[in-house]
């Protein structure tokens, strides 16, 4: 029997910070309203030369470093993202190329802010089935590119960033213990980004109508979120055979402090058992849970052996929760330095293009 252990973790956020005071110069809002209604103080915004893939690469390399694995050791890359770099190719493939994960299959997973939980579950199930030995699961976002900076009801909420976990197979019990995934497409219109897809291909009209921006019914999403967070956490715990008292930490999707407080009330747990950093990053969608997790581990809050539940909700509508026993890095026999492989990956990428060109001269001709 194989278990899927989380053995590496990393995060990356862009340097530029946008505070509530900065926002109050852009739209009619103020720091007090944003803090009181959302708990957010500031968020990080990607520079022009930063994308979902570049943030994902930084987080992934850090996670590989903690796990002491080379990019070439990875069998599968799943990138959960709500702001992919392109419709296709997948952001996961861009990351695969940039880190040089030559053996890995790679695909994107679209389940909005629940995406990281879905992706972690998919990777863990692939490991548990015995079909792969290791996976890199990434949540990477540049939602700032899809926010209407004139819409005060959405632009205050979102931020950019990425988080990544490495999962490895082991015969030792632990790691991912259970997961639940849910959806309700009847609420798809409550939170959507419609422009640029096949229904509304990008044209002057869709741009004029602002279909390339995030549209949200905040109140409805709020009610849905407060209803499902505690419920999904309980389901994941039941599936793992754990009680809420046996769990050291809940790592919720960081959307709004009031939603997290409602989940705490629903679970009858004190807020001290919840990891919260929404104040400094805002809602980074798929990246919010791994970023919160990385900070909690680095601060020494989450320790090896702790039982944790990650829980999230998002557009779709989707929601889900995953219970795990936190493993920590496996003992190091021989230290590897995954960052050193980046230059090799760049050269390899150029060489693969040349190779394809040469192959095309011989095999790609139409008679
Ligand atoms: N600054 C000042 N006033 C504002 C702002 C703002 N930024 N935004 C709205 N207001 C005003 C409204 O116009 C309204 O004024 P009115 O009473 O005169 O009409 C008043 O404040 C109250 O507005 P509400 O929308 O009722 O405010 P609410 O307390 O519901 O907070 C919020 C809005 C923060 C958006 C909340 O509904 C929320 O967090 N919803 C969940 C959103 C969410 O989590 N989305 C992400 C999902 S995850 C994913 O998949 C991406």
How is the topology of this model organized?
Blueprint: E1 3-12, E2 17-19, H1 20-24, H2 31-38, E3 42-44, H3 52-67, E4 76-80, H4 91-99, E5 105-109, H5 115-128, E6 134-141, H6 152-155, E7 161-170, E8 175-183, E9 191-192, H7 204-208, E10 215-216, H8 218-240, E11 249-252, H9 257-267, H10 278-281, H11 288-298, E12 307-314, E13 318-325, H12 341-363
Parallel strand pairs: 4-5, 4-6, 11-12
Antiparallel strand pairs: 1-7, 2-3, 6-7, 8-13, 9-10, 12-13
The chain binds acetyl coenzyme *A.
How many helices? Answer: 12
Major β-sheet strand ordering: 1-7-6-4-5
Contiguous low-pLDDT stretches (5 residues minimum) are none
Just name the CATH architecture: 3-Layer(aba) Sandwich
Order of helices and strands: EEHHEHEHEHEHEEEHEHEHHHEEH
Strand % is 15-25%
Write down the CATH topology: Peroxisomal Thiolase, Chain A, domain 1
Q: Structural class from helices and strands?
A: alpha/beta
> Share of helix among residues?
25-40%
- Structural Rg: 20 Å
CATH superfamily: Thiolase/Chalcone synthase
What gap, in angstroms, lies between the N and C termini? 53 Å
Number of strands: 13
Give an overview in words.
This protein is an alpha/beta fold. The chain has a single domain (3-325), classed as 3-Layer(aba) Sandwich (Peroxisomal Thiolase, Chain A, domain 1). It has helices at 20-24, 31-38, 52-67, 91-99, 115-128, 152-155, 204-208, 218-240, 257-267, 278-281, 288-298, 341-363; strands spanning 3-12, 17-19, 42-44, 76-80, 105-109, 134-141, 161-170, 175-183, 191-192, 215-216, 249-252, 307-314, 318-325. It is globular, with a radius of gyration of 20 Å. Bound molecules: acetyl coenzyme *A. The site of acetyl coenzyme *A has 24 residues, from helix 2, helix 6 and helix 8. Acetyl coenzyme *A (ACO) is lined by residues 29, 33-34, 37-38, 82, 112-113, 152-153, 156, 191, 216, 218-219, 221-222, 225, 255-256, 283, 285, 314-315.
């Amino acid at each position: 029997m194989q278990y899927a252990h989380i053995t590496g973790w990393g995060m990356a956020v862009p340097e530029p910070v946008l505070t509530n005071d900065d926002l109050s110069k852009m739209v009619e809002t103020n720091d007090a309203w944003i803090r009181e209604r959302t708990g957010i103080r500031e968020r990080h915004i990607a520079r022009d030369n930063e994308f979902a893939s570049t943030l994902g690469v930084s987080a992934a390399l850090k996670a590989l470093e903690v796990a002491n694995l080379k990019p070439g050791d990875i069998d599968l890359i799943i990138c959960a993202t709500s702001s992919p770099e392109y419709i296709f190719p997948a952001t996961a493939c861009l990351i695969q190329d940039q880190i040089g994960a030559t053996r890995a299959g790679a695909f994107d997973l679209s389940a909005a802010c629940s995406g990281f939980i879905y992706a972690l579950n998919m990777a863990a199930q692939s490991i548990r089935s015995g079909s792969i030995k290791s996976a890199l699961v990434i949540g990477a976002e540049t939602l700032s590119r899809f926010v209407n900076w004139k819409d005060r009801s959405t632009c205050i909420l979102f931020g950019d960033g990425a988080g990544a976990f490495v999962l490895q197979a082991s015969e030792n019990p632990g790691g991912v213990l259970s997961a639940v995934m849910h959806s309700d497409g009847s609420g798809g219109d409550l939170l959507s980004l419609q422009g640029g897809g096949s229904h509304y291909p990008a044209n002057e009209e869709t741009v004029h109508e602002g279909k390339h921006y995030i549209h949200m019914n905040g109140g409805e999403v709020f009610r849905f979120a407060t209803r499902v967070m505690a419920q999904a956490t309980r389901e994941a715990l039941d599936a793992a055979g754990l009680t809420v008292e046996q769990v050291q930490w809940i790592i919720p999707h960081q959307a709004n402090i009031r939603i997290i407080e409602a989940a705490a009330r629903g679970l009858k747990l004190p807020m001290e058992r919840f990891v919260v950093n929404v104040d400094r990053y805002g809602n980074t969608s798929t990246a919010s849970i791994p970023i919160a997790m990385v900070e909690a581990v680095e601060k020494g809050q989450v320790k090896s052996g702790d039982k944790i539940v990650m829980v999230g909700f998002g557009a779709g509508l989707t929601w889900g929760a995953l219970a795990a026993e936190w493993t920590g890095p496996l003992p190091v026999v021989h230290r590897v330095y995954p960052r050193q492989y980046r230059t090799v990956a760049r050269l390899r990428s150029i060489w693969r293009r040349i190779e394809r060109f040469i192959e095309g001269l011989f095999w790609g001709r139409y008679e």
